Amino acid sequence: MEIAEFTAPDDVIAQLRASSKLQALRELAKRAAVATGLDEETIHAALLERERLGSTGIGRRVALPHARIRGLDRIRGFFARLERPIEFEAIDEQPVDLVFLLLAPEAAGKDHLAALARISRLFRNPETCTRLRQAEDAAALYAILTERQ
Question: Any idea what DSSP says for residue 56?
Answer without folding.
Answer: -
